[in-house]
Specification:
Strand content of chain B: 15-25%
Shape of chain A: globular
CATH topology of chain A: Rossmann fold
Helix content of chain A: 40-55%
CATH superfamily of chain A: Response regulator
Number of helices of chain A: 5
Largest interface: A-B, 16 and 17 residues
CATH class of chain A: Alpha Beta
Radius of gyration of chain B: 32 Å
Number of helices of chain B: 18
Largest sheet of chain A: 5 strands, parallel
Distance between the termini of chain A: 17 Å
Shape of chain B: flat
Radius of gyration of chain A: 13 Å
Number of domains of chain A: 1
Oligomer: heterodimer
Helix content of chain B: 40-55%
Structural class of chain B: alpha+beta
Distance between the termini of chain B: 59 Å
Number of strands of chain A: 5
Structural class of chain A: alpha/beta
């Protein structure tokens, strides 16, 4: 029964603090956090290895920009959903992210409701 | 229990301080090479994270200053603001301010950013770079006033080694004084020495404690290493790690680092099968490797388990014969645990079967030597088709070891507890001569028995192992274990268990290979520490 299976999430953020907050939030809401990546390279590897259902993606990362990671993930596996979680709220970047297939764009600081709502919506759009 | 908010706060502060240190480093570098875009991008990223985290947790002032600095560096990046001397000063001030606010998050007096600084930041952010004339001098009350130092210090391990050696010497003298005070029977002296005893005890444990690090500091390097080996070997590996919090002496961890790496390489290269083979065997396509640590009193037990193809006992027996360690009949008679112990013999290898890479077995003697050198022991268990487990028993600390004291004639000897298995009293009639060795059946195992009195009184090669040399009807035997093998040592008298400080033997005594070192007992008597590894090796070879 696929419905009862926990959705598998990969968190990509270069800040340990942010990752911890997001992880706790997602675990509490019944998601399975399959990995945490602090940079683009690890993010792409983990997306390949762990094949998560959804990735929460920060835009500013130490190596790649988040948008490159977004492109990379979608190229490898278009099935993986991506939600951007970033403090950068520039319209250009938001539009670009949408163009590359990000489903939602959450601006930091985020409220728990916002994040969970975005994820619920992302999975509804299947 | 820490609340989640408290935990978030601690994480925030730790990460913010890390960012602050990195910012200081990078901005100094940037002064030297203002065109370095990577540096600018990194500074921008750090400030960006600091802002976002501060906003999330609700430290408005930190978020505000970070935001202004982020904007300034954004402008510098886009060449809209010159990295001029005046601007640099304001940026340094801003970063100092951040540091001040972060370090004072927990202090009762909240640090507010100086208005002059905020204004300066606004000026460089909002105006064109020529307008810097308006910049006012920010009074740096904070950096000069309370320069705060971290609660953690880095210390060279060399210094801690020295400290530990001194503690060792001190304990030997202490035991001597305690013993003298008993002999003299002077109340004052007894009281002082009792106090001295407690203080040195505490000192010893404090120094040992200062040297402890988490096993995790080594274990956490393995996910990356395993990944790289797995990629090179074209295998899929699932690594599980547990017990990272277990603590152990830093030098011990250092000494076994290469060994553990070696065992891990072996497990993945030679243990785990390729994915298609695993599927055929009805195993998961991913090979599983478990790395764990646990405490057992004064011992730290590290385990490395793989669910690969395991070690074929028959192949090992064949190799034992082929490489001339034993004649074929003797090899067939070996117990399973004894068979596997040959893997650790120098020059032993199963390389014939796995010539394309280095064979399992190559280098295991090196692993064993490293573990012997710190008084630990290693054990291997394996089942063909199911996998292999290497277990490392390591002392938590180097200097002080638990030991069993015994007496042979007038002399005292210590046997490290790490190697003692059990103590039995056996009627002399149950000892049998086999060649030039004594053996006995103890709990269903045939164990070689060494008569220490004869051993100590003769050259090694002259030791006869004749039953006629034994005195008394009952023999006290200490069973020791080394490398999956047992050996019985006949002593005159068992004394007690005691913590001892082992000193290396000075020449020319250190050529005698049956002693690992020497210690002084409280009575002032010299006590030799037996090298169980060397003695076992010698008698197993003799067999």
């Amino acid at each position: 029964m696929e419905i009862t299976e926990k959705k598998r999430i990969l968190i990509v953020d270069d800040s340990f603090y942010m990752r911890t907050m997001l992880k706790n939030m997602l675990l509490d809401a019944g998601y399975d956090v399959v990995g945490e990546a602090p940079d683009g390279k690890t993010a792409l590897e983990m997306a390949r290895d762990k094949v998560p259902d959804l990735v929460t993606l920060d835009v500013i990362l130490p190596d790649n920009t988040g948008l490159d990671v977004l492109k990379g993930i979608k190229q490898d596996n278009p099935e993986i959903k991506v939600v951007i979680v970033s403090a950068v709220g520039q319209e250009v970047i938001m539009n670009e992210a949408a163009e590359y297939g990000a489903l939602h764009y959450i601006i930091k600081p985020f409220s728990e409701d916002k994040v969970l709502e975005a994820l619920t919506n992302a999975f509804k759009e299947e | 229990m820490k609340s989640r908010d408290q935990e978030y706060k601690e994480i925030f502060i730790a990460e913010a301080l890390e960012y602050y240190d990195a910012l200081n480093r990078h901005i100094s570098d940037l002064e030297k090479s203002p065109e370095d875009e990577q540096l600018l991008a990194e500074i921008f990223r750090l400030l960006h994270n600091l802002k976002a985290n501060a906003k999330a947790i609700g430290y408005v002032s930190i978020a505000d200053v970070s935001h202004k600095l982020e904007t300034a560096f954004g402008l510098i990046r886009n060449k809209e603001l010159n990295f001029s001397d005046e601007v640099v000063t304001v940026l340094f001030d801003g970063i100092d301010m951040l540091g001040e606010m972060i370090t004072n998050i927990d202090s009762p007096k909240e640090v507010e950013p100086s208005p002059a600084l905020l204004r300066n930041l606004d000026i460089i952010v909002n105006s064109i770079s020529e307008n810097t004339a308006e910049l006012s001098k920010v009074q740096k009350y904070y950096t000069s006033k309370n320069l705060s130092l971290s609660d953690l210090i880095y210390i060279q391990i060399k210094k801690l080694d020295h400290l530990l050696n001194l503690v060792g010497e001190l304990i030997i003298d202490r035991d001597r004084i305690v013993s003298i005070s008993k002999e003299l029977d002077n109340e004052d002296l007894k009281n002082v020495s009792a106090h001295l005893y407690r203080i040195t005890d505490e000192l010893q444990y404090s120094v040992m404690d200062a040297r402890l690090v988490n096993v995790g500091s080594l274990f956490n390097k393995f996910p990356r290493i395993v990944r790289d080996i797995a990629v090179a070997e074209k295998k899929e590996i699932n690594l599980e790690i547990s017990g990272q919090d277990i603590q152990i002496d830093r030098n011990i961890l250092q000494i076994i680092t290469d060994s553990l790496l070696h065992l891990m390489r072996n497990a993945i290269s030679h243990g785990i099968e390729k994915a298609d083979m695993r599927k055929k065997l009805k195993k998961t396509p991913q090979g599983n490797v478990f790395l764990s640590a646990q405490n057992d009193r004064d011992t730290v037990i590290l385990k490395l388990t793989d669910d690969g193809k395991g070690i074929d006992q028959q192949e090992v027996r064949k190799a034992i014969v082929q490489r001339g360690f034993l004649p074929a009949e003797a090899a067939e008679d070996l117990r399973e645990s004894e068979v596997l112990s040959y893997l650790f013999e120098p020059g032993f290898s199963l390389a014939k079967e796995v010539t394309e890479v280095s064979g399992r077995g190559v280098g295991l003697d090196v692993v064993k030597n490293a573990i012997d050198s710190i008084g630990g022991r290693i054990r291997v268990d394996s089942k063909k088709g199911e996998g292999t487990t290497f277990t490392l028993f390591l002392p938590t600390s180097i200097a002080v070891k638990g030991a069993l004291l015994c007496q042979v004639e007038e002399n005292f000897y210590a046997i490290p507890l790490m190697h003692t298995d059990s103590v039995v009293a056996l009627p002399s009639v149950e000892l049998h001569e086999v060649g030039d060795l004594l053996v006995a059946d103890i709990n269903g195992e045939t164990i070689t028995i060494v008569y220490l009195k004869e051993l100590f009184n003769s050259e090694l090669h002259e030791y006869s192992g004749k039953k006629s040399k034994l005195e008394g009807d009952v023999q006290n035997i200490i069973i020791v274990t080394y490398n999956n093998r047992k050996l019985g040592l006949i002593v005159d008298k068992l004394l007690r268990q005691q913590d001892i400080v082992i000193k290396a033997l000075s020449k020319p005594v250190n050529t005698i290979e049956i002693y690992a070192g020497v210690t002084l007992l409280g009575s002032g008597k010299v006590c030799l520490v037996l090298d169980v590894a060397a003695i076992t090796r010698y008698f197993i070879a003799r067999r």
